[in-house]
Amino acid sequence: MNRREGARRPTAKVGLLRGTTPATGLSSDEAARRLELHGPNEIPAEPRTPVWRRVLQQLRDPLILVLLVAAALTIATGDLSDAAVILLVITVNTVVGVVQEVRAEQAVMALSAMSAPAARVVRDGEERSVAAAEVVPGDVVLVAEGDIVPADGDVLAAASLLADESSLTGESVPVEKAPDGDEVRGAVSAGTVIVRGHGRVVMTATGADSALGRIASLMGGAPGLTPLQHRLVKFGRTLAAVTVALCAVVLALGLVRGQPVELMIVAAISLAVAAVPESLPAVVTLALALVARRMADRHAIVRRLPAVETLGSVTVIATDKTGTLTEGRMAAEQLWTSLGEASVVGTGYQPEGRVVRDGEAVTAGDAPDLAALLSVAMLCNDAALEPPSHRSPEWSALGDPTEAALLVAGSRLGLDRAALDSELPRLEEIPFDSSRKRMTTVHRRPDGGVRIACKGAPESVLRPQILADRPEAVARAAAQAEALARRGYRVLAVASADHDGRPQRPPAWETGLSLLGLVGLLDPPRSASEPTITACKRAGIVPVLITGDHPLTARAVAGRLSIATRDDEVTTGDRIRAGTAGDLTEVRVYARTTPEQKLDIVQAWRGAGTSSR
Length: 613
What we know:
The chain has 20 helices and 23 strands. It is 41% helix and 21% strand.
């Protein structure tokens, strides 16, 4: 229900440790036995349909059934030429429909094969490459930056481990993982991506038993008829009833007038054949096939032809946020220092862009306060930006997406990360963790002194124990941080201090710092999102946003895209669960929702029928 884009596709590297216990991994024989017992670690998917079954599905169309009856009756009357025409129409209709479905399925399978992660396993003392689908419960998996987690598991050991779980939760911000954590921090889920650090995880659930598998199973119901199919079914039944009634009337009138029985039967059958619109199914199928071809040229795969017509009947669009309306990455958009605010403009991870203050673009030389803020943010940073290459045609990021966003903002101001690292090499660091909510690094200055660089959550940095600034200045920064948070931003505070010599103890590194400013980060909307939403609303389609992200973040994105304009148009999964959300079709933004609740919301809209609100 969701899917993220904009970053380089990570490659999965999974290592299984030797041994026979969950703490040390499985032997090759035990892994094979469990694989046979549990089946492959694959998400439940729609099975491949045999060709003969596809043909039968095409022939079950009501109008096709009428044509089959007409062909049989035509053959019975000896009119073989008409029967051949009818059978040709049926054949063309069936072939077009089957070919389109087979091509769509092959395209989907090809995409799945391209995205299938590989796994490096160690079994029986040998390292081998196997499909990640062969991971079984009890395996101990080594995960590191860039890996796709192959199954649900519990964290056994972790070092600065962060996982991007937006594909499951909608949260744009990575989640820290650690052993002995709570239900969220102490576990990883299939399909999530490790964005920083490394760790060991024991697999507990695979395939259909994993969180991703349970979500896939929610979509296992058979699709219903489209509006056009409903109308064609009704038309076919009405046509059949009227045709049979008229044929019976013609037959009866002829017999009453003394006409031969054989002649009237032939006349009645001829009337039935003439009443059937043989070309209608072919025209409908060919029209849908042409539209499917046009959509394929725009990189949209249609698995079943009737879905094309369904798109034209849409009155409500329920969309995810992360990676759908937004770019699926963090971006530093707002900068604040004691001298004023500034905005960072640009898309993607490429350094091209600008920093705007008071309506004018500024550089590091024009705004020393912004340069100091972003310089420290780039120094206290473990992420990296990679330029376009043969593997990725666009700029991509390695590491924590939040830190990558700080690098991009600094580059757009004109700062050079390599030059900063060369001028101020890192000596020591205190890594980020969830209890401290900040990260601190120590850098050697050219004059022999050191510079302390610190960034973290405002509540962690804006404290008297950390900062040497005046209380009123700190209070002003705290008020600004709260204002940014209300607008849906994730806020980071940045501080630094210079010392002639290196402080002796790590706790001394985080005292007496000077606040440089705040950075507001957000997963920004795609450039095409706003015109698309506007076009939908102009066409009478109601857009609604359903996400697992924070209500403030969801409200901010919805406001930018004009999906919701009032606070009463936003509700949460907790309110839905408690039954206090009211009429779900009166809401335009749903935040903190589970996959099950997302399905319930869609069903509520479908049950309410079309809406023009």
